[in-house]
Write a structure and sequence with these properties.
Helix content is 57%, strand content 3%. The chain has 23 helices and five strands. The longest helix is centred in the middle third of the chain and has 53 residues. The protein is elongated. The two termini are 76 Å apart.
Length: 761
């Protein structure tokens, strides 16, 4: 136990250190040294990887213009790396020096470092907005990831800077300060915004992802120096779009951070802030004042009056939903794509009209956030109606869900940021099931009826209980699991049947090659030639299928061909007759065994052997009895269909069935590569000559012929193509690959891209 008279090295949070003291100066110098050393190493590693990343992107660029951008970016980074690195580290050093001197930086003083939501959006250029989105995203992500360690650093730095409150934004080594310092340094680079955004991602990956160790070093050094050594890394309040809890149960709890933390409410709020910025920039609107009134950029006043409450919005939507739910929904009565697109576009107007009627007013307006949500859901369903991944019938069916999904979005805006949100997962599952739908592949209408029933239940039953989406998703998954198992059995049968036919064809060609090669140049009597090319050819085929090329049986079958051909040569002397007599017993034994294998009846075999005996007696110069025929007749060979006789041996495979001559563009490497890169399980759409389309999944690629086998949702064969034939279909536009990305992800990417693109572009 320590002596009570000894001075304590523990500094309580209630105590404050004088920033001018020598002890504080030493601690600050320690922090500066740790930050400078660690950040210099991280920045150097990042710049080493920037060059490689830009080079790889240039090699994979979709066109020459993009490739030029990446190569120009590489040259610019190489040329100015030193100054960018020096500027970044210099800005961090200045922030640390200001902190040491007690001058805490206020982020609001620099328009370039403000959070996105505080920027005067109408004055922000498109490139500046994209940079702001990138910086905001990576700062929010890393502040959340590093919340525990960053909280401790904030508390300890607060003590040594005289008790001034320190938060994530004002921390000179926090993600926000580091990202803004790097943003200022990047102004030295004259590169396209596309290249800048890639560099930001690499900064996130190689610098911000590595500052965990810096925070650990700072916390360990300051704790060892007696600055809050027993501080527990608990966060009482984190930034969120929700109000802080109050009441007796609002005790703060530690925030747990696993290796792959889920999207948080704060991250969802940040995402919505970004979307709000894009919507506001697109509309060119000024922020409304505190009374709810505002003036558009065009000078037209926004309608005044109280904003509708959430209950009013949901009530108006419920009325509209009830009107839609009573409309007929059979396949024959579904609205056309054009009609549904018009309804989707008019929903906001209908909603405002409905609210006005409920209030007894002619006009109504909603808050900016609610308007963003309404527009965002509208754009989502416009995307669905334009999505070529979905069949037209399914597009129209899913588009009826606009009102239920707008209600979900107003109740819980996290749907747009959380991939695990039940409403989002259900829509993704419906779209994925619908992707492979076709009238031909769903003759019994099971899939269409299932999707329709889910749509109907949402329209009739969904009020405000989001749990219905979980229930319907589980129901859909159960249905799809049953259908998948049934389809897998059908697929397996189709693949096995195709594999069997290909093996048979391969064996027939191999047998024909051997027979033609071993009889070439020999002037064989019709009887000998007929036995080899018909009966014995089928035995060779059967041997290949059952025992394979490496087997003793196959070698024996080829040896018989040689002996049989030799037995047909003219006999001129005693030695020749002796050799022939030596061959005949073996020939007869092999022939009996082979013919029995290919299902010759015993009577047919005896008839054939009688003909051969007569032929050999003639060969040996003995008197031969007269026979009806010197050649084989069809009745002699009742062969099973599975091993039809080879009438005309061929050396080369038969021509492809895709067409007489493949177009030159079919052999363009782009289309051949596209065909080669197909993966089993991918869906394609095929267009027939009459314009009708069918959808099929790649089920199997033959290791023998390399042909691609496609099946529908029921597992039934739709088509099979060779590599060249598939490349030709891609070139001619009669085949296209359907995107395997989830619908919601594709929709959000398209919406953000659309919002970033000027309307007159």
């Amino acid at each position: 136990m320590s002596n009570a008279s000894e001075p304590s090295n523990v500094v309580d949070l209630s105590q404050r250190l004088d920033p001018r003291s020598d002890r504080v100066g030493a601690l600050l110098a320690t922090v500066r040294g740790l930050a400078t050393k660690r950040l210099h190493a991280l920045a150097s590693n990042m710049f080493e990887n920037i060059d490689d990343a830009l080079f790889d992107l240039a090699e994979k660029a979709e066109n020459n213009a993009a490739q030029t951008q990446f190569f120009d970016g590489m040259r610019e980074v190489r040329k100015k790396r030193a100054i960018v690195e020096r500027t970044f580290l210099g800005q961090v050093a200045r922030d640390l020096a200001d902190f040491s001197a007690g001058r805490l930086r206020a982020p609001e003083t620099d328009s370039h470092t403000r959070p996105l939501a505080n920027i005067e959006l109408s004055l922000v250029g498109e490139n500046e907005l994209e940079e702001s989105l990138a910086v905001t995203s990576m700062v929010g992500k890393n502040e959340q990831r590093l919340a525990r360690a960053l909280f401790a650093v904030n508390q300890r730095l607060s003590v040594i800077c005289g008790g001034n409150k320190m938060d994530d934004a004002s921390n000179p080594v926090g993600p926000a300060s580091l990202a803004n310092a790097f943003r200022q340094a990047l102004r030295e680079l004259l590169v396209e915004v596309r290249v800048k955004l890639i560099i930001y991602k690499l900064f996130d990956r190689y610098v911000l992802a590595g500052i965990d160790e810096l925070y650990d070093d700072i916390n360990n050094e300051l704790a060892a120096a007696g600055v809050l050594p027993q501080l527990r890394h608990e966060i009482s309040t984190r930034r969120s779009d929700a109000p802080a809890p109050t009441g007796p149960d609002s005790t703060a709890t530690p925030v747990a951070h696993g290796p792959a933390a889920p999207v948080t409410d704060a991250a969802a709020a940040e995402f919505m802030h970004s979307l709000h910025a894009l919507f506001s920039a697109r509309r060119g609107a000024m922020p409304a004042d505190m009374s709810g009134a505002g003036v558009a950029a065009s000078g037209v006043p926004i309608p005044l009056g109280p904003l509708p409450s959430p209950a009013e919005l949901l009530g108006a939507l419920t009325l509209l939903q009830s009107q839609i739910s009573v409309l007929p929904a059979s396949a024959a009565h579904l609205a056309s794509q054009g009609e549904m697109a018009r309804d989707v576009a008019q929903l906001k107007e209908q909603l405002l009209t409905q609210i006005g009627q409920l209030r007894g007013q002619h006009t109504a307006h909603v808050s900016g956030v609610d308007e963003d949500t309404i527009d965002l859901v509208g754009m989502l369903f416009e995307f669905i109606l334009e999505d070529r991944n979905l069949p037209a019938e399914m597009q129209v069916l899913l588009a009826r869900l606009q009102i239920p999904y707008l209600k979900v979005a107003l109740l819980d805006r996290r749907m747009f940021a959380h991939k695990s949100h039940p409403a989002r997962q259900l829509l993704d599952a419906l779209a994925d099931a619908a992707k492979g739908w076709s009238a031909e592949g769903d003759r019994d209408g099971r899939l269409f009826d299932k999707v329709k029933s889910i749509v109907e239940r949402l329209l009739h039953e969904f009020d405000d209980d989001i749990a219905i989406f979980d229930r319907l998703a589980a129901e859909l998954q159960e249905f799809l699991d049953v259908a998948r198992k049934r389809a897998e059995l059908a697929e397996q049968r189709v693949a096995e049947s195709t594999r069997g036919r290909e093996k048979l064809e391969q064996a027939r060609r191999r047998a024909a090659q051997e027979i033609v090669g071993r009889t070439a140049g020999a002037n064989l009597p019709p009887l000998i030639y007929g036995v080899l090319t018909r009966a014995w050819a089928n035995y060779v085929v059967l041997t290949l299928l059952r025992q394979g090329e490496e087997s003793t049986e196959f070698a024996d079958s080829l040896r018989f061909i040689d002996h049989f051909v030799a037995s047909a040569r003219p006999v001129h002397d005693t030695n020749s007759r002796r050799d022939l007599r030596a061959l005949l017993p073996g020939i007869e034994r092999s022939l009996r065994r082979g013919l029995a294998s290919v299902a010759f009846q015993e009577a047919d075999t005896e008839q054939l052997l009688a003909q051969l005996h007569a032929f050999y007696r003639t060969q040996l110069g003995e008197t031969a009895p007269e026979t009806e025929s010197g050649t084989l007749v069809a009745s002699v060979m009742p062969l099973p269909e599975a091993i039809q006789a080879i009438e005309e041996p061929v050396l080369e495979p038969e021509p492809e069935d895709e067409g007489e001559v493949l177009a030159d563009e079919a052999f363009d490497e782009r289309y051949l590569s596209q065909a080669r890169e197909l993966k089993v399980g991918q869906w394609l759409e095929f267009t027939a000559d009459d314009g009708t389309t069918d959808r099929a999944k790649l089920s199997w690629v033959s290791p023998i012929s390399g042909r691609f086998l496609f099946v529908n949702r029921r597992g039934l064969k739709v088509a099979d193509h060779s590599l060249a034939g598939l490349a030709q279909a891609f070139a001619q536009g009669t085949a296209r690959v359907l995107d395997s990305t989830l619908l919601f992800d594709r929709a959000m990417d398209a919406i953000v891209e659309r919002l970033r693109t000027p309307e007159n572009a």
